[in-house]
Amino acid sequence: MTGGVLVVGAGLLGTSAGLALRRAGVDVRLRDSKAEVLREAIGRGAGRAEEPGDPPAALAVVAVPPETAGDVVADVLTSGAAEYATDVASIKALPAARVRERMGSTGRYVGSHPMAGREISGPGAALADLFEGRPWVICPDEHTDQQAVTRALAVARMVGAAPVTMSITDHDDAVALVSHTPHLVAVLMAARLVDAPAHEIRLAGPGIADVTRVAAGDPALWTEILSANAPAIRDVLRNLRADLDRTLAALDAPDTAQAQLYQLMRSGVDGRARLPGKHGAARTDFVTVSVIVDDRPGQLARLFADIGAAGANVEDVRIDHSPGQPVGMVEIDVRPGTDQTLRAALTESGWRVP
Amino acid sequence: MTGGVLVVGAGLLGTSAGLALRRAGVDVRLRDSKAEVLREAIGRGAGRAEEPGDPPAALAVVAVPPETAGDVVADVLTSGAAEYATDVASIKALPAARVRERMGSTGRYVGSHPMAGREISGPGAALADLFEGRPWVICPDEHTDQQAVTRALAVARMVGAAPVTMSITDHDDAVALVSHTPHLVAVLMAARLVDAPAHEIRLAGPGIADVTRVAAGDPALWTEILSANAPAIRDVLRNLRADLDRTLAALDAPDTAQAQLYQLMRSGVDGRARLPGKHGAARTDFVTVSVIVDDRPGQLARLFADIGAAGANVEDVRIDHSPGQPVGMVEIDVRPGTDQTLRAALTESGWRVP
């Protein structure tokens, strides 16, 4: 990209973008308010420091928290550091409103959101491959210059992402449904454990571990995200509460409310089935093969070597723990048709394939 | 066990118990109201059919749905088919009440609950190792004969489980917290997806997949479980709703309620941290090493072989999908101290270890 890219904010997303763009041969300048963060990102090869004589960058990628993203975009555009700018905050109405407020127009700005992340943060957690194959949502409106969109699309493609265009409202509604409300639900469930007796928590298994996994995310960042997308989340959460209230009423008279409880369970199955699987395939496109393994070094190596030798491609894998015991179960998802061959081959190699 | 074990109900749990007990050399008789189910379980080696001249079994293990468990226990004890009986339903107050109603006393019965299962059912899904290392809760009360407890403990140990004794109330409260309410929460979230626009669901990632995973469970069985443990679940769910209502209020005025939202996020992190990890170790006892892999057969084999060669024992593994792209990230949890060596060894072997 002639003119290069200016990345502002050398955290997980900014440094990852820098690494991926450098790999694609792009001139990347980095900026961060913290000198040691900037140093680490440069040290990792995510780009170079800005220099006084630099011409305006073709595009600024602003990777700072949602609440400051709009201001940083406005600063970068008005100072002449970049011709166009995008930000990568996980909500899009807030930064766009701030840019409009500051600049009167949002022409040279287009908001975007790469659907990628990790539960750890900072330049040390950055990955050149973080965006590979992930949706990168780009949200132009009627005031956006085509050049801003073109350049944001180019960056998304250069880092290996799959660009998707949608309106700001559609984006913020979508993440309220598929990211922000699930986070809240996980947190609400996890919060029930804080004061629970130890003998109850002792019976916890993989189910509640799955339900609450995302609740471990950074509380400060999530507070900011939820605040910024409050109206859209509230809509989803209100509907969820209506179902919850009906469920509570049904639990008050379970003998007469079985049909209602069943209907809710059925909706859960149906809703879950709509989630995209790997490569967009429905989850039912895979068959699970379970294998018992001993909890010793080298067992998984031997198992996966045998799977490879059987010619099977693993779509997903889960290890199911056995607390207190030296055995576990490995569940391997493969395409239907390959499961029989795999079962036979693993049994042949001495694995316990129930 | 002299006298042998009678397993009633040759589904997932009953057949798995039969397989494990047979392996331990126990004489297992099987009973199921469906002839073809019984045939399949016997065919898999889970035991033999009952015979007219059989003496009473030392213990009956009743593995039928919660709503009929108490009646089946009473039938088995009054008919003389077994001297003592336990059931394995996931709730304990309901079957105990039914046994007391039918027999006037619960002396020869002790309820139990192996904390093991799969998302598939029937004798075909049974595993001799299903209970290995899992807690098997046994719930005696002041009327229970010591022999009933002794025999139930013996069966739990023979199938490889880790027996835990607690009161019926403690058990039902515990599963309401760690299993039934999380299931409901997952269902409530998944139900929001039923009528959602496809362009919103398209942005779904691994977070919501985790939160809603258990919602795929059998709706009829779950309706029965939730109905039977309604009072205990209601207590947990009411507290959750109180937090939810506070959250909705905070989302109505997010600018003034940041401290409150932050506090909730913080509780989520703290609650999540209380969940037991593998072998009872806290989850923070592990360090994650991430590796980029190509989505081709043999890649995981090579990776796990290299991990084995490095001497590292894998505590957990996750494969993170990249929809539409031929790459993925494998996250490997290892004990602190081994992660540096593992990173170095994998990098040395040519892996991308960011």
Automatic annotation (TrEMBL), chains A, B:
Pathway(s) served = Amino-acid biosynthesis; L-tyrosine biosynthesis; (4-hydroxyphenyl)pyruvate from prephenate (NAD(+) route): step 1/1
Domain ACT residues, every copy:
288-354
Q: What is its EC number?
A: 1.3.1.12
Q: Write out the entry's keywords from A to Z.
A: Amino-acid biosynthesis, Aromatic amino acid biosynthesis, NAD, Oxidoreductase, Tyrosine biosynthesis
Give start and end of each Prephenate/arogenate dehydrogenase domain.
Answer: 3-282
Q: Which InterPro entries match?
A: 6-PGluconate_DH-like_C_sf, ACT-like_dom_sf, ACT_dom, NAD(P)-bd_dom_sf, PDH_C, PDH_N, Preph/Arog_dehydrog, Prephen_DH
Q: Which reaction does it catalyse?
A: prephenate + NAD(+) = 3-(4-hydroxyphenyl)pyruvate + CO2 + NADH
Record-linked Pfam families: PDH_C, PDH_N
Q: Does the keyword Cytoplasm apply?
A: no
**Extent of the signal sequence:** none
Gene Ontology terms describing biological process: tyrosine biosynthetic process
Q: Which SUPFAM superfamilies match?
A: 6-phosphogluconate dehydrogenase C-terminal domain-like (SSF48179), ACT-like (SSF55021), NAD(P)-binding Rossmann-fold domains (SSF51735)
Q: Does the keyword Repressor apply?
A: no
Which superkingdom?
A: Bacteria
Matching PROSITE patterns: ACT, PDH_ADH
Q: Which GO terms fall under molecular function for this chain's record?
A: NAD+ binding; prephenate dehydrogenase (NAD+) activity; prephenate dehydrogenase (NADP+) activity
Q: Which family does it belong to?
A: Belongs to the prephenate/arogenate dehydrogenase family.
Q: PANTHER family, alphabetically?
A: PREPHENATE DEHYDROGENASE (PTHR21363), PREPHENATE DEHYDROGENASE [NADP(+)] (PTHR21363:SF0)
Query: What name goes with this protein?
Result: Prephenate dehydrogenase
The record lists the organism as: Phytoactinopolyspora alkaliphila
Q: What is the lineage of its organism?
A: Bacteria, Bacillati, Actinomycetota, Actinomycetes, Jiangellales
